[in-house]
Batch of 2 targets.
Target 1
Amino acid sequence: MTYRIGLIVGSLSSHSINRRLSKALIKLAPAELEFFEIGIGDLPLYNTDLEADLPAAVVALKEAVESADGLLIVSPEYNRSIPGPLKNALDWGSRPWGKNSFARKPTGVLGASIGAIGTAVMQSSMRPVLAFLDAPQLTAPEGYITFSPEVYGEDGTVHNDATAEFLSHYMAEFAAFVTRVLANAPGHIGE
Ligand SMILES: Cc1cc2nc3c(=O)[nH]c(=O)nc-3n(C[C@H](O)[C@H](O)[C@H](O)COP(=O)(O)O)c2cc1C
């Protein structure tokens, strides 16, 4: 069984450390996970006025999220919380009322920071948002990554055995979590 996982990177930076981390995670993921990126950089700022005629970028976001079997969100922490572009994407994906694209999507959130707490506060800010959006979350293991440039190659190669082992374990647990959630979902495998 192969699962299509939508990758959302919470940083718009062209030299994002979180994008580097996401490449490592994809490289170390079990073979049954296939990844595609769900871009958030072209979304307009959320505005109720735009809901009457959803912008094309919003329609694309919602269709991409809905087509995914699960979501992997790799994001920085901004000012001890969720980066604006990522929160904007979550808000758009949740709308219009009754058409929340995130509902029942198994989701893993982790992130890298240059600081010692490794996006822990961003991740705890994400938990109530994803809970409200009815997205089941991988709660263990947690991935609080303090980024060391020498460890993460541009191509996703991880130059530290312990880090590679930890990230492989995270992705194996994420794959098992997606499998578990989908096995119990109406209309999915196990029905
Ligand atoms: C607006 C802003 C706020 C930030 N706030 C935090 C923070 O609360 N905690 C933290 O660990 N790092 C913080 N940082 C530093 C980020 O960890 C660092 O810029 C990191 O490279 C961002 O991830 P990215 O490279 O994937 O964009 C902040 C950076 C910016 C630009």
Target 2
Amino acid sequence: MAPLVGLAAHAATGSPAPAATQPPAAFAQCKACHSVDPGGKSGIGPNLFAVGGKIAGTKPGYAYSPAMKASRKRWDRANLDAYLANPKGLVPGTKMMTPGVSDAKKRKELVDYLMALN
Ligand code: HEC
């Protein structure tokens, strides 16, 4: 009960949570593997809380592919967009087995959301 009340109060004050912290519809397909819980629990994929600006493959407690750990990419907007469009294109050998999000508008919404998760 308490968390719901807290959320409502938070929404009512209008800040500091920007609208972008609401997941876009396209994030539904990511949730099967990714949590965005600030507590940091990972699932099949690493937890994505505060991923924006971080170096790829560095979330503590998650077993990344050797390719992701070796990539040393920084998750800025351009790299996130490229990874979501074609995971294996940006990080050959990644174990994120998804076909990629072909719609640029959906990718932008996803990147906005990921960058706002802080
Ligand atoms: C079938 C499961 C699965 C789905 C669906 C999936 N991912 Fe992933 N994702 C993974 C795995 C596994 C990794 C770790 C890749 C590696 O270590 O090579 C990963 C890694 C990532 C990373 C890098 C995180 C880091 O800490 O470096 C990002 C960002 C990411 N995914 C975003 C997304 C987004 C956004 C979606 C939805 C469009 C999505 N993923 C859908 C499994 C998935």
